[in-house]
Each structure stands twice: as C-alpha cells, then as structure tokens.
C-alpha cells in the first residue's frame, strides 16, 4: 500500500463546504431516484404485476427492487475502475445521468393492464440500470469528500455524505405524500404515482449544473500528476493479497452487517408497517418520515465521534443493538395494530360502497367496512372488484395518536442503530485503501454489503414470514444472523482505532 505521513487540510473551510454540498446534493438525488421505487412498492405491485395473488405481486415488486441492489457491485467495478483511471468528478457525473434517466423512464411505462408482462420486464431493466449507476455514485462521492477533508476530521465531514441515503428516502416519502395530497387518493393510485418518478429529471438537471462546477479531488490530481495512477485498478485491488484481504475484511467485518441494519431499520420497517401491520398509507409514511428526520443528525454526531475514538467500536455497537433489540421492538410494533387483542365498539361499525374507474378505464366497485375499537384504533376492510377481475381485498389500520407516536419512537430507535453503523463507515472504508485504487477497492465491499446483503433484507425477511407456520417476526432472523457474523469478525480482526492517514 502507498504510505505517506500526515494528511493536512487540503482545502479552505469555505471551499470544503462547497465540495460537501455539491457532492451531497447529487448523491441525495441519486438515493431519491433509487428509493422512490421502494417507497411506492405497495402501489407498484398493483400497477406492474397481475393482481390474482396480491402477496405474489408484492413479493415480485420487492424482487425487482432487490435486483437493483444485486447489480450494484457490478456498477462498483465498472465505475470504480473509471474513477481510478480518469477521475472522480466525471465518473459520478455519468452515474447521475444514468440514474436520473432510468428513473424518469419508469414513470412513463404503461401498467400491466395495458401492455401485460412487458411492463414488469421494462421496469426490471431500468431498475438494473439504476443499480449500476448507484454502484458508481456512492464510492465516488465518499472518496471525493474524504480526499478534500483534513484527516483528523474525516469522519465528521464524510458523515454528511452518509446522511444523503436517509434524506433521499425522506425526500421520496415527502414528495409522495405531497403529490398524493394534491391530486387525491384515487388519482394518485391511478396515475399520480408517476409524478415522483418524472420529477427526477428536474432534480438531476439541477445537480448536474452544480457538479459541473466541481474540480477534481486534489489527492487524485496529485497522484495523476505524479504518474502514480494504475493501469488496471481491478487487478491491483483484488489481485494483490494485501489489498484483497482488506476488501474481504471490509465486507464481512463491516459493510454486510451495516447493510442489514440500514435496510431493516428503514425499508423493512416500512414494509412491515404497511404490509404486516396494515397501517394506512399516509400514516405509515409519516411514521417513517418523522423517525428518519429525528434520527438524521446522529449520522453527523457518530461520524464526528469516530474521529476521536475510532470507527470500529461505534459500528460494532450499532450491530449489537440490532441483534439484541430487533425482535422486542418488532413485537411491540405489531401489538399496536393487532386488533384481535382490542375491544371493539360494535355500534360504530359502518359499510360504504362507491364506484370509480381503474387505470384501464373499467368500472370498479369499492366496498369499505369500518370497525372502531375502544383505544381509538380504526380497521377498514376494503374490497375492490371490476367486471373483468376477481375481488381484491385489503386491510387498513388507522392508529390513534398515542399509538402513532409510540410507533414513531420505535422507528427512531431503529434508525439510531443505522446512524451508529453508517455514520463512520465512509471514513472507515476510505482509510483502508491507497488513493490510486481507492474508488474501486472501497466501492465493491460497500455495494456487496449494502446492495446484496442489505438490499435483499425486505425480500428475504418478508419471504420468510410468508412460509407456512411462520410468525410475523421470523424474517428478522436474517438481519440478526448477518449482523452477528459481522460483529464477531469485526471485533476480532478490525483494529479498534482505525482512523489512520497511512493511505493518503
């Protein structure tokens, strides 16, 4: 590995904050583009897949969502190589254009009722492009910021990039709720869901304008000027024993565990609230959004703290919290919507019927049976049927204020675990590898850990709970098991004071 002495601050503070802002805005928009699909998974399952089996349709949507994660490591290899050969700036400009274009295109695809199985096939292809683009984005942005930052505050400054994933999810939820409010529920479910995808083109344009004004990373520019760039970053990263060892340690000692904690605390939590608990759409999104907003500052707190006490202990503590507390937390969440344990108020039961048009223009009859319970919980059983299809049934739970805020608190605690594992990890990964192969070397373990181990969490967890005889909490064994493996490897093999400058 390349060695040097100390990394002095390479930029003035004003210029450094400009670098962080430009990198973060673009990365936030890429995460928004990537996560808008997951945030709308419940609706998309009714748009792009046949409705005969709603559970299968939802699982198919989650599988398509997961496909974008599975290809992220390939994007890390392709764009990581470009980043180490031609530079950070132009590589993540390219990823931004690919991400924005594919997101915009998803908003234009006709539904299953119009073009049949061509719809999910086209969505899958575009989702794969999104995954490839994101595979190149994060490593570039984290590396770019880290290579501008002073080494003794690298955890603090890179933590702002770490907030963008959660804020991208928050932005996607906010846009969805705003559009749904403006166009109405029926219109949103019919065609309004497309608007958040189409808005991507405007957001990406703004980000491209900002990023075009950025300069190349000074550390990479120095390496390039000195002729120390490598001709084959892939061979250098994975063909040399010492570098490959660090890649494997980063994956199995950190990023795989970090990935399952991230996706359990945010996306699986959303899926669990919407599908297993059947919480009403708007209320479920508000719960996640508020939890995300309250916890986001802790990315920066834990990132800055890692500059003082090291990255490892904070990340391992976050994994341990998930291992110990996920099942108790999710049991408490489930109890809030379990109407079998509540006292019904029979006199308040009412039934309503209404007629509307679905996306295919067919007349649809919707019957809603509403029950009230003594604690203020409301259960709605909704049956929809058109002339050409079988009845589709859905359950919707509306929580009272007290239960709503308890659920927000339970989500907040999970996101707090996320901030512990995710806040310091960009600085941790950057410091493992030398500058001339850093983009490639850090991107691959990050995107395997997050894209494969983490991104598959909602799909695997919900699949496990769908097995005969399974409980609503059996899906948690997957993230708990992966986090436990990473915790053991991380404690044994990662130096507890990892925040060095020897690879600058």
TrEMBL record:
<keyword id="KW-1003">Cell membrane</keyword>
<dbReference type="InterPro" id="IPR020846">
    <property type="entry name" value="MFS_dom"/>
</dbReference>
<dbReference type="Pfam" id="PF00083">
    <property type="entry name" value="Sugar_tr"/>
</dbReference>
<dbReference type="InterPro" id="IPR036259">
    <property type="entry name" value="MFS_trans_sf"/>
</dbReference>
<feature type="domain" description="Major facilitator superfamily (MFS) profile">
    <location>
        <begin position="19"/>
        <end position="498"/>
    </location>
</feature>
<feature type="transmembrane region" description="Helical">
    <location>
        <begin position="404"/>
        <end position="432"/>
    </location>
</feature>
<feature type="transmembrane region" description="Helical">
    <location>
        <begin position="115"/>
        <end position="135"/>
    </location>
</feature>
<feature type="transmembrane region" description="Helical">
    <location>
        <begin position="246"/>
        <end position="265"/>
    </location>
</feature>
<feature type="transmembrane region" description="Helical">
    <location>
        <begin position="476"/>
        <end position="494"/>
    </location>
</feature>
<feature type="transmembrane region" description="Helical">
    <location>
        <begin position="444"/>
        <end position="464"/>
    </location>
</feature>
<keyword id="KW-0813">Transport</keyword>
<feature type="transmembrane region" description="Helical">
    <location>
        <begin position="313"/>
        <end position="330"/>
    </location>
</feature>
<protein>
    <submittedName>
        <fullName>MHS family proline/betaine transporter-like MFS transporter</fullName>
    </submittedName>
</protein>
<dbReference type="InterPro" id="IPR005828">
    <property type="entry name" value="MFS_sugar_transport-like"/>
</dbReference>
<dbReference type="InterPro" id="IPR005829">
    <property type="entry name" value="Sugar_transporter_CS"/>
</dbReference>
<feature type="transmembrane region" description="Helical">
    <location>
        <begin position="191"/>
        <end position="210"/>
    </location>
</feature>
<keyword id="KW-0472">Membrane</keyword>
<feature type="transmembrane region" description="Helical">
    <location>
        <begin position="156"/>
        <end position="179"/>
    </location>
</feature>
<keyword id="KW-1133">Transmembrane helix</keyword>
<feature type="transmembrane region" description="Helical">
    <location>
        <begin position="285"/>
        <end position="306"/>
    </location>
</feature>
<feature type="transmembrane region" description="Helical">
    <location>
        <begin position="56"/>
        <end position="79"/>
    </location>
</feature>
<keyword id="KW-0812">Transmembrane</keyword>
<feature type="transmembrane region" description="Helical">
    <location>
        <begin position="91"/>
        <end position="109"/>
    </location>
</feature>
<dbReference type="GO" id="GO:0005886">
    <property type="term" value="C:plasma membrane"/>
</dbReference>
<dbReference type="GO" id="GO:0022857">
    <property type="term" value="F:transmembrane transporter activity"/>
</dbReference>
